[in-house]
Amino acid sequence: MNIAPVIEYLNKQKGYNISAEYYAKVDIWRDWWRGFYKPFHEFTEVNGKQRIKRNLFSLKMAKKVCEDWASILLNEKTEIIVDDNASNTFLQGEDGTGGILGANDFWSLGNALVEKAFYSGTGAFVLKLAGMKLAGENIVSDKDSKIKINYLTAHNIIPLTIRHNCIVDVAFVSEVLEKGKKFIYLEMHELTNDGYKISNQYFSYENQNLKEAPLPEGIVPVMYTGSDVPLFTVFSPNIVNTYDNSNGLGMSVYAHSLDNLMGVDLAFNNLCRDFKLGGKKVFYSDSLIRQDENGKDITPDDVMQQLFSFMGDLPMTEDGKNALMTEYNPTLRVQENKEGIQAQLDYLSFKCGLGTKHYQFNAASVVTATQYMGDKQELIQNAAKHYIVVERALKEIVRAILWAGKEVLGQAVNPEAQVTVNFEDSYIIDKESERLRDLQEMRDGILQRWEYRMKWYGEDEATAKAMAGGVMTDDDLMGFGGDA
């Protein structure tokens, strides 16, 4: 979707001064994520007088990098714990798989959004309130309302107001297809003295032109939430954006690694081309070629012929060998190509924050656990940095859901409840060592027993404090996995 017409509309109708320049970079990052950036992957070969378009063989590593970051940062073992039981149940059901999050397939679609945010530089969770009642333009509590979550990337986000590096006012743009006809849905969230104002507009979209159209049934033009709690949260990879005119959007995790993506594909293309061009080549003397009744040349192998007669002297090469047939066996250079690809992958993973040894294809390599963790140090540090923005986004969207649950659905939930996010990072962190370290800190009085239970048992604060009410004995410590 081309967002430029929407930006042009906002600038003209609202008097804004928003630049569409940055989205061209997002388009390039998306092409790499899809695995085909035309200016690089398409090239022309000249075969005699004929020009033939060809495509480079590609490993499509940009998507793999984003997939790996999404798998690390938000996966099925990530836990969100609300210290209010009613709120926690409303959010994710009794078993942790239901509630609002379960109804919106949050863990699957949220993981996909993190992947897309890491290619596009920005992602947003946006709450939608379906079937709600209004008194004028104000929301009225109604238990039959529904909470939906939209998952949007940089292509759909137009920041309007930024304060202290936080997006306060924002427009979300979505492309809708109705019976083969394209429409643009524009949703604006603006903070006023009376809380957030949410306005909606609908446009038909033909030949890059917008024409205002009636809103679909159930969508109101304007409503006021009466609260300063935003019904959206925007996050980006936790890296400093080096580009101008970014409008408050973030930067792709591989924005500074495009040369490395090219290097990987050049090396991989060389390997594939060597195999493609490396088949045995057999050159026949004209004296071995026969023709059928239509004048088509027939080689000996076409007719499986093995016996031939030759009249006159046999042709000879300069070195005295028989020249009736010559074969050529190109060198495949498998090992050199493999080493080249591995080197390029090491550079790429280093530049994308995954460490130099994240992509290894040397099956014979055996390392100790200590060496393995040492190799992962850079990944651990960068993951901890990205956890900050993902954790904040999760807490903000949970707060928005709980606010909507109370104010819109009339549920007995607490939007101010404490929210804890536990990331599953055993893939990159030695969890046993971390647990023993926390156990030692608990013995030394640095960490409270209830804090330990919250972290390692996923209990809310009240439950953890109740369970930790007794005095910890040496037997208890042994039960926690440590030595008394």
Concise account of the structure shown:
With 484 residues, this protein is α+β, with helices and mostly antiparallel strands. The chain has helices at residues 4-14, 22-34, 38-41, 61-73, 85-92, 99-103, 106-120, 258-277, 334-351, 369-375, 377-407, 431-443, 449-457, 461-467, 474-479, and strands at residues 42-47, 50-55, 79-82, 123-130, 133-135, 138-140, 146-153, 157-163, 166-178, 181-192, 195-206, 209-213, 222-224, 232-235, 281-284, 290-291, 297-298, 325-328, 419-422.
Topology summary:
Elements: H1 4-14, H2 22-34, H3 38-41, E1 42-47, E2 50-55, H4 61-73, E3 79-82, H5 85-92, H6 99-103, H7 106-120, E4 123-130, E5 133-135, E6 138-140, E7 146-153, E8 157-163, E9 166-178, E10 181-192, E11 195-206, E12 209-213, E13 222-224, E14 232-235, H8 258-277, E15 281-284, E16 290-291, E17 297-298, E18 325-328, H9 334-351, H10 369-375, H11 377-407, E19 419-422, H12 431-443, H13 449-457, H14 461-467, H15 474-479
Antiparallel strand pairs: 1-2, 3-19, 4-7, 4-14, 5-6, 8-9, 9-10, 10-11, 11-12, 11-13, 15-18, 16-17
